[in-house]
């Protein structure tokens, strides 16, 4: 009976799939001398840019942009129903979802019918068209999966897009193309590439090519760049109400008959485009930004265009409505041989002085907020799975899923939307974060309860740790600190808690007192003093993988005798020494692993590996580039980085130092000037050097203000020979060479900006012996402009628009209105190349999965708390090797979990671990047992298939829970689970 049900299900899927757009493609002419013109009717709708996402949807604020996306859906549906030959392609799921939830069932049925009869093709399927420079691969996977899941749930088989559609991002990454192939897309299309590469590809007919996206996985994807430098119709054929082109006037009895002229203009364009291709299929885009608000004007004229071209082109041109997937089918059937590509499309330049490398850094605090929110989302998904895999709970963090997906939009995370729109994005995250906190409370309450009748867990809250601000420590002398670790490996860190009392004691999960040290907070004039705590409490915590540990803080007087003291607790000793500049002396600090030396002017001078005894010159400084203003045709701005000269200016010639030593860490606190400060930190038993920088408000002159682009520069003696390496969306490392382009002839028109690349997580240089690595806590622009150097742009402020559409300078007001203050951390490693690759990979993962702290009120006995509550939890019962990571663990419904495992190394990065690894899922996780495993595509919206997109082949792993995973691979599974013995 079960077999019969499966057969019937497969038949239903096959029948339904036969009606999807990619299986109902128009007939094209097989004659190679005939040009088949695929008219792709589409609209590109930004989920926020000049207006907020909801203003764009409803059409409010028409004085900014007179469009409303809801009307696009409505009028396209009306027009498609008039003629079954008409087609349309929709991309952004975030807008489709808004239309769906605001319309009734009869209207929904109309849309669904058009999708299921093949007239509407859903393309790409992500919640947004994400950026490819600043977005982290985990964020990309999440936003794509979130959109794809919504489409599949709503529209079934026809809700599984076959083509990736990235037509507006400002440069394209190799890793996104790799992920696209893993999502199961047959092709990828986009509009923008470096103008010199575009010229080269037009010349050798390689606008379409095969992109080799992973050396490890041997993945590749058919990729097409559009003939024009945009994603709109050819000149003279924009029939939207936003355009100014004449309609087709085809009645000879009326004035201004223009059919002959229009047909000639159209055919001339088709032939020109055909001369740049290797086959006889032409993709012609009919639509652009927010077009089809009145779809009737489009289809009325396109119907006429098809009719008259077919009548007048002497059978040399065949024009028809089509879709991207149908175009791909036709190109594939043509058997054309295409060139291959192995590099990426960064940096993007639209002209010789317009390098789109400023947005790699624009709005740095927003970029960080997005990264923090996505890390928090991973924690929520994992804790939700452990707490409620077998029932109960309420997924209140769907809103955070939507908010983080929304901010991956290529005008959101890039920092290229208007300030008011950016504020709207941040508000959405803030509201969703607070709701997520309620969910987290329920999860932890469920996980930690030792009996069903126990007291409720005290409410948990977050503190603004980057601002040394914590309300709960102000109002409550005693409180709990729960440290969460969403990473697959245990993490040891020094926890820093803002407090108001000068004395405090810390107790661990067992109620034993551990070393806690109070130091004065590093308070500069850059941030407002209100709410900032005068002290920080430091203690060291080791947190288990996929879990958490609770600690107890007792401020002021000693705690009651009910709490136990550790026998090995050393007497607290806090030594604070202040050094000012001394013309004759240098300052050295070390943690037993690394020694740092600072020169008499307060700058870092050298790095010493204490174990090997090798000391290397290493200098770190802050500089700023002056940006071009609007007296030139291309100012620096939100998108564009255009410095006025190739040498930056130092922010100061000397630095004020203060060294704070405790038993657990050493801090070198530096003040460069009134708007730049930094803490360089060495934690105990750690070879990583932390550079916590604070920059801003960047000065604004009263008259003729000058744009400033602030960098942190690291200078070593490594002989890097012009080469440096940057990550691609946090995964593959890309080799870069200064003043060099791989696929076109490099022209040195912008010697700084043209050498900038996106750094999502990691940049490094190396020579035959050593590697200098810097990891970031958010996306930034970076480069190596001289051998031995790494520079990262941390902040920027511009006072003129750069003429690329946002129509607003990048002049963030910050909290006080005087300018934005940005705080962040660079993580530096310097050492032998033998272990550096694995270490940098693990460090980058730890940064993304940075432990989060929640704080709860606590007024009772520690012993009583421990009797009622578990104070430590791990969801990972079987240790994983350091190169295998649980990327996703998400409860999608009761008893069903999505699991993604990844191998974080590339080939040759580690002699031992850059090999396939086998992982046994049996008994791996706490709270549930796996009873069935199916392998899915990366988007978790389709079972792995070897015989086409419809023929379903499940990889059933019943009885065999061993999973083999190779370098750089990500495997996605659907788990059916039941309660385990420990539940």
UniProtKB/TrEMBL annotation:
<dbReference type="Pfam" id="PF17677">
    <property type="entry name" value="Glyco_hydro38C2"/>
</dbReference>
<feature type="domain" description="Glycoside hydrolase family 38 central">
    <location>
        <begin position="354"/>
        <end position="429"/>
    </location>
</feature>
<keyword id="KW-0479">Metal-binding</keyword>
<dbReference type="InterPro" id="IPR028995">
    <property type="entry name" value="Glyco_hydro_57/38_cen_sf"/>
</dbReference>
<keyword id="KW-0862">Zinc</keyword>
<dbReference type="InterPro" id="IPR041147">
    <property type="entry name" value="GH38_C"/>
</dbReference>
<dbReference type="Pfam" id="PF07748">
    <property type="entry name" value="Glyco_hydro_38C"/>
</dbReference>
<protein>
    <recommendedName>
        <fullName>Alpha-mannosidase</fullName>
        <ecNumber>3.2.1.-</ecNumber>
    </recommendedName>
</protein>
<dbReference type="Pfam" id="PF09261">
    <property type="entry name" value="Alpha-mann_mid"/>
</dbReference>
<dbReference type="InterPro" id="IPR015341">
    <property type="entry name" value="Glyco_hydro_38_cen"/>
</dbReference>
<dbReference type="GO" id="GO:0046872">
    <property type="term" value="F:metal ion binding"/>
</dbReference>
<dbReference type="GO" id="GO:0005764">
    <property type="term" value="C:lysosome"/>
</dbReference>
<dbReference type="InterPro" id="IPR011682">
    <property type="entry name" value="Glyco_hydro_38_C"/>
</dbReference>
<dbReference type="InterPro" id="IPR011330">
    <property type="entry name" value="Glyco_hydro/deAcase_b/a-brl"/>
</dbReference>
<dbReference type="InterPro" id="IPR037094">
    <property type="entry name" value="Glyco_hydro_38_cen_sf"/>
</dbReference>
<keyword id="KW-1015">Disulfide bond</keyword>
<keyword id="KW-0325">Glycoprotein</keyword>
<comment type="similarity">
    <text>Belongs to the glycosyl hydrolase 38 family.</text>
</comment>
<keyword id="KW-0326">Glycosidase</keyword>
<dbReference type="GO" id="GO:0030246">
    <property type="term" value="F:carbohydrate binding"/>
</dbReference>
<dbReference type="GO" id="GO:0004559">
    <property type="term" value="F:alpha-mannosidase activity"/>
</dbReference>
<dbReference type="Pfam" id="PF01074">
    <property type="entry name" value="Glyco_hydro_38N"/>
</dbReference>
<dbReference type="InterPro" id="IPR013780">
    <property type="entry name" value="Glyco_hydro_b"/>
</dbReference>
<dbReference type="InterPro" id="IPR000602">
    <property type="entry name" value="Glyco_hydro_38_N"/>
</dbReference>
<dbReference type="InterPro" id="IPR027291">
    <property type="entry name" value="Glyco_hydro_38_N_sf"/>
</dbReference>
<dbReference type="GO" id="GO:0006013">
    <property type="term" value="P:mannose metabolic process"/>
</dbReference>
<keyword id="KW-0732">Signal</keyword>
<feature type="signal peptide">
    <location>
        <begin position="1"/>
        <end position="17"/>
    </location>
</feature>
<keyword id="KW-0378">Hydrolase</keyword>
<dbReference type="InterPro" id="IPR050843">
    <property type="entry name" value="Glycosyl_Hydrlase_38"/>
</dbReference>
<dbReference type="InterPro" id="IPR011013">
    <property type="entry name" value="Gal_mutarotase_sf_dom"/>
</dbReference>
């Amino acid at each position: 009976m079960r077999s019969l049900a499966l057969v019937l299900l497969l038949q239903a899927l096959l029948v339904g799939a036969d009606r999807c757009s990619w299986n109902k493609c128009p007939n094209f002419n097989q004659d190679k001398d005939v040009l088949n013109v695929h008219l792709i009717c589409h609209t590109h709708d930004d989920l926020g840019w000049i207006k907020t996402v909801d203003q764009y949807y409803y059409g409010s604020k028409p004085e900014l942009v007179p469009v409303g996306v809801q009307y696009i859906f409505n009028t396209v549906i009306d027009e498609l129903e008039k003629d079954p030959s008409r087609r349309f392609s929709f991309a952004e799921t975030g807008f489709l979802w808004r239309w769906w939830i605001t319309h009734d069932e009869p209207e929904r049925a109309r849309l669904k019918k058009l999708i299921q009869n093949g007239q509407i093709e859903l393309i790409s399927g992500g919640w947004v068209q994400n950026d490819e420079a600043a977005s982290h691969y985990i964020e990309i996977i999440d936003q794509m999966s979130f959109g794809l899941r919504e489409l599949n749930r709503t529209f079934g088989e026809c809700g599984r897009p076959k083509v990736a559609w990235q037509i507006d991002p400002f440069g394209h990454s190799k890793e996104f193309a790799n992920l696209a192939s893993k999502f199961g897309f047959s092709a990828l299309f986009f509009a923008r590439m470096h103008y010199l590469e575009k010229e080269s590809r037009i010349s050798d007919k390689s606008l379409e090519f095969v992109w080799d996206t992973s050396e490890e996985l041997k993945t590749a994807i058919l990729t097409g760049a559009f003939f024009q430098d945009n994603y709109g119709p050819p000149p003279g054929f924009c029939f939207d109400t936003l355009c100014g082109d004449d309609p087709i006037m085809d009645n000879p009895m009326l004035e201004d008959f223009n059919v002959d002229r229009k047909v000639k203009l159209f055919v001339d364009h088709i032939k020109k485009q055909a001369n740049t291709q290797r086959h006889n299929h032409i993709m012609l885009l009919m639509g652009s930004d927010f077009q089809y608000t009145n779809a009737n004007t489009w289809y009325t004229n396109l119907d006429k265009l098809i009719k008259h071209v077919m009548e007048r082109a002497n059978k040399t041109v065949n024009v028809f409505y089509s879709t991207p997937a149908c175009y791909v089918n036709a190109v594939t059937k043509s058997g054309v041989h295409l060139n291959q590509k192995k590099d990426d499309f960064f940096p993007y330049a639209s002209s010789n002085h317009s390098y789109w490398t400023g947005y790699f850094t624009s709005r740095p605090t927003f970029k960080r907020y997005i990264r923090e929110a996505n890390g928090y989302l991973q924690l929520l998904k994992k804790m939700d799975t452990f707490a409620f895999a077998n029932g109960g709970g309420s997924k209140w963090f769907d809103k955070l899923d939507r908010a983080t997906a929304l901010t991956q939009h290529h005008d959101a995370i890039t920092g290229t939307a208007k300030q008011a729109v950016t504020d709207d994005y941040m508000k959405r995250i803030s509201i969703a974060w607070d709701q997520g906190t309620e969910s987290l409370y329920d999860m932890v309450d469920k996980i930690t309860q030792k009996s069903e009748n126990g007291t409720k867990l005290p409410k948990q809250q977050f503190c603004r740790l980057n601002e040394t601000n914590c309300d709960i420590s102000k109002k409550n002398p005693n409180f709990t600190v729960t440290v969460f670790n969403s990473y697959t490996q245990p993490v040891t860190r020094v926890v820093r808690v803002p407090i108001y009392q000068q004395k405090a004691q810390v107790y661990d999960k067992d109620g034993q007192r551990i070393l806690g040290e109070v130091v004065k907070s590093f308070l500069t004039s850059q941030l407002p003093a209100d709410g900032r705590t005068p002290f920080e409490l430091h203690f060291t915590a080791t947190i288990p993988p996929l879990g958490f540990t609770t600690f107890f803080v007792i401020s002021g007087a000693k705690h009651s005798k009910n709490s136990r003291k550790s026998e090995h607790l050393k007497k607290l000793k806090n030594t604070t020494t202040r050094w000012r500049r001394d013309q004759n002396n240098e300052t050295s600090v070390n943690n037993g692993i690394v020694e740092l030396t600072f020169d008499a002017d307060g700058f870092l001078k050298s790095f010493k590996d204490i174990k090997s005894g090798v000391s290397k010159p290493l200098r770190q400084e802050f500089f700023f580039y002056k940006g071009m203003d609007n007296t030139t045709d291309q100012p620096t701005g939100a998108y564009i980085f255009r410095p006025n000269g190739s040498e930056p200016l130092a922010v100061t010639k000397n630095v004020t130092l203060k060294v704070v030593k405790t038993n657990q860490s050493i801090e070198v606190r530096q003040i460069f000037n009134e708007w730049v400060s930094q803490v360089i930190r060495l934690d105990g038993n750690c070879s990583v050097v932390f550079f916590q920088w604070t920059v801003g408000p960047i000065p604004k002159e009263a008259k003729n203000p000058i744009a400033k682009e602030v960098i942190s520069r690291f200078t070593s003696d490594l002989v890097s020979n012009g080469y440096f390496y940057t990550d691609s969306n946090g995964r593959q490392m890309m080799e870069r060479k200064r003043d060099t382009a791989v696929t076109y002839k490099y022209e040195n028109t912008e010697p700084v900006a043209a050498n900038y690349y996106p750094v999502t997580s990691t940049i490094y240089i190396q020579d035959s012996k050593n590697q200098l690595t810097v990891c970031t806590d958010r996306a930034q622009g970076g480069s190596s402009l001289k051998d031995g150097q790494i520079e990262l742009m941390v902040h920027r402020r511009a006072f003129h628009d750069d003429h690329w559409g946002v129509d607003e300078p990048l002049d963030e007001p910050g909290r006080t209105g005087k300018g934005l203050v940005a705080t962040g951390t660079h993580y530096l490693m310097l050492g032998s190349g033998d272990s550096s690759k694995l270490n940098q990979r693990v460090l980058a993962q730890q940064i993304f999965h940075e432990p989060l702290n929640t704080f709860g009120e606590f007024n009772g006995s520690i012993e009583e708390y421990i009797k009622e509550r578990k104070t430590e939890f791990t969801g990972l019962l079987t240790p994983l090797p350091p190169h295998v990571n649980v990327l996703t663990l998400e409860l999608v419904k009761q008893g069903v979990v999505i699991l993604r495992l990844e191998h974080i190394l590339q080939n040759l990065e580690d002699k031992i671990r850059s090999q396939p690894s086998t992982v046994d899922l049996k008994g791996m996780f706490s709270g549930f047992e796996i009873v069935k495993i199916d392998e899915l595509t990366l988007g978790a919206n389709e079972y792995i298939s070897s015989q086409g997109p419809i023929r379903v082949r499940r990889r059933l792993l019943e009885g065999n829970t061993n999973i083999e995973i190779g370098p750089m691979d990500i495997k996605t599974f659907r788990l059916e689970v039941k309660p385990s013995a420990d539940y």
